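Today's session is about reading a structure prediction critically. Students often jump straight to the picture, but the first step is always the sequence itself: look for stretches that repeat, for charged clusters, for runs of hydrophobic residues. Only then move on to the predicted structure, which in these notes is written as discrete structure tokens rather than atom positions. Here is the chain we will use throughout the hour.
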Amino acid sequence: MTVHSRREHHTMKIGIITAMPEEYRAVAAGLGAVTAISLGNLRAGRSISAGYEFLVVESGMGFDNAARAAEALISDDCPDLLISTGFCGGIDPELQAGDVVVAERIIIANAEGFEEIPVLFSVIGQNFVARQAGEGERTVGGGFVSTPVITSKARLAAMLSGSCQNQVVEMESGAVANIAAENNIPLLAIRAVSDIAEEELGFSLDEFCDPGLRRIRISKVLLTILRKPHIIPQLLRLSRSSRRAAESLTAALSRLFSTL
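Below is the predicted structure for this chain, in token form.
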């Protein structure tokens, strides 16, 4: 359903959707300064710089949360561009932790198979990848595979073999792409790799999060560790690689925003 018709703005408005607090902080650091605003029950902020107004939202994890956040942004003040950003898992074994991938296509993977979203990708993303490659940064174009739950990377790789370079898996961009397509809004999806292809996660988000997948709860993490002590080394590795991904994403977004 179309939420809001687009209209002309004197100031270009850019809506940015993240899932987790760490991702929100990376965006805020990339922007330099964000002022908290009210947007329903969502954590949200605004930043104005060089003729652009940025609206940042922390949606929570998964398709439903991401879709609600995109609809809220569009209903509040229809943006000229939507950005889906955060962390992702590498499907392509050549991708390293901290690598930045900009979507050239977005596919939703579910029990029925794959569905490619016919979204209009912003030329801003394509131009950014070209500039970063010329400057020697580890920023590439690639394929985003959005899944409703944590899914085996090896399984996805086998099913997607040869369909696209630099493939990653994540859990929100497909939903944001659907809303962007329905409202004729260009999309830029940019993510940093936090877990590489060989790192298959030994837990589900349901085990770590509150029922709405809005936040990770330390109490639930500790209970899961008690049940699955073998995941401790993986959690330590993920903590280190997530910090690297956050630093990489902050740096990439800072470069992106400064060249708009």
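Discussion point for the tutorial: The first strand starts at residue 12 and ends at 18.
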